[in-house]
C-alpha cells in the first residue's frame, strides 16, 4: 500500500497548530487515509504588545484566530497566539524570520514531506521555505553539514499568501521559484488584498490561482474540500476549478 501524501501545515499569524487544525477540521476529515496533514507551531509566542491592537476578539477573528488567548503567556499551548515572524508597522521587516527558518529546517531533517500548505503569514512562510529548498545554498545557515535538510517539495499551497518582507526573502526568491504552487485568494479579503498577494504571484513560475467569494480564511465548502483533496493527491493533474474564473485570474494568464 502506497504511503500517504504528507503535507506540512503552517498556520497564520496569531494562530497556532491547534487552532489551525481545528479550523480545518472539515478539510482534514475529507482527506481520507491518502493524505496526512502535519500541523506545527510557529516558534514565536506573541504577547499582547506584539499584536498592536489586534488583541480584541473582533481583530483576532479577522485574522482567523478568535480562539487565541492573548493573556495566556504560553501557559495553555492550545490557545497561545504564535507567529513565524514579527513585523514593523510598515511591514518591511521580519523579526525572527531566520529563527523560524532554522526551526523548520530541523523539522524537515527529521521527516519527509511531499508538500507544504500555509495560510496568511504561514502561506508566506510556506512559499519562502519552498523556494529555499530549491536553492538551499543561498542561505548557508539552512544547510546541515553542507547539504539541504530535505529534497524540494513537490507542491506548495498558499492561501491568502504574500511575499515575506526583508532581504532574506528577496534573495531567496530571486526572480522566481519553480515548484508548482496553488495560490488561493479571497475576493473580499481585507487583510491580504490582491495587490499584496501579487508580489508572491509574480515570483511563482509554475502557479495556479483560484479565488473564492469570502474573506481572510481557508475556503471549506464541499466544492473546495474536494478540490483541495484532488490537488494534494495530484498537484500536476487536470483538476477543475472550484469556482468560476475571475478577471484577476485571467489577467495573470495573459
TrEMBL record:
List the Pfam families hit by this protein, alphabetically: FSH1 (PF03959)
Looking at the record's lineage, which domain of life comes first? Answer: Eukaryota
Region Disordered: start-end pairs: 65-84
| Gene Ontology cellular component terms for the protein in this record | cytoplasm; nucleus
- The answer, when asked if Cell membrane is one of the entry's keywords, is no
- Keywords in UniProt for this one? Hydrolase
- GO MF annotation terms: hydrolase activity
Serine hydrolase domain location is 1-226
The record's section on InterPro entries has: AB_hydrolase_fold, FSH-like_dom, LovG
Q: Where is the composition biased (Low complexity)?
A: 65-81
The protein's name in its UniProt record:
Serine hydrolase FSH
